UniProtKB/TrEMBL annotation:
Keywords: Cell cycle, Cell division, Septation. It comes from the Bacteria. It holds the Pfam family MinC_C. The keyword Transcription does not apply. InterPro entries: CAP/MinC_C, MinC, MinC_C_sf, Septum_form_inhib_MinC_C. The keyword Zinc does not apply. It comes from Thermus composti. This is Septum site-determining protein MinC. Residues 72-170 form the Septum formation inhibitor MinC C-terminal domain.
Length: 185
């Protein structure tokens, strides 16, 4: 959730997962209407709380973020390094602890993912995170957040995606692939 003042209104961005209590706790100056950008799944209770604030309210769709294709990072990301891109990010190397990859699209790591990865950073929960070794303490997809359980580590490539409102991680080898059509010579 982000709140900023514009000359004509208070602009509020809802990323999803906000609570009615968080809405009621917002420091809202008097006299300005609310323009609410809904960028993630918002509950009925949150919408009712916004209406109960008693000020003019305009609901806006999420801003279209241009997908600028794929960014390929051909190196290992060290602690403190951050890569952010509105499209898909492919890292040809490791993402070490303390490094971050934030993508509007998918995150693909051809190496070990031990830092933070956020796919669908602008609210798109249909994105995924793939790594040859997924050892991150935390991953994000759209508005969803998952923390790795202690001690569990699957060998081989893994894919993280959102299923029924939560992040699931599955071994790449167990995925069912559609048959590849024969090539003509």
């Amino acid at each position: 959730m982000r709140l900023r003042a514009t000359p004509k209104a208070l602009a509020l961005r809802l990323d999803g997962g906000e609570t009615p209590e968080a809405i009621r706790a917002l420091p809202l100056p008097e006299g300005l209407p609310l323009e609410v950008e809904v960028a993630g799944p918002v509950s009925q209770e949150v919408l009712e709380t916004l209406l109960a604030l008693g000020r003019p309210l305009t609901l806006l769709p999420p801003r279209n973020r241009p997908s600028t294709g794929t960014l390929v990072v051909a190196k290992t990301l060290r602690s403190g390094e951050r890569v952010e891109h509105p499209g898909t990010v492919v890292v040809l190397g490791d993402v070490n602890p303390g490094a971050e990859v934030v993508a509007g699209g998918d995150v693909i790591v051809v190496g070990k993912l031990r830092g933070l990865a956020h796919a669908g950073a602008y609210g798109d929960e249909a994105r995924f995170i793939f790594a040859l070794e997924l050892a991150a303490k935390q991953v994000r997809i759209g508005p969803h957040l998952a923390q790795a359980p202690e001690g569990e580590k699957a060998p081989g490539p893994e894919l993280a995606r959102v299923e029924e409102g939560r992040i699931v991680v599955e071994p790449w080898a167990k995925r069912k692939s559609p048959p590849v059509p024969p090539r003509s010579a």
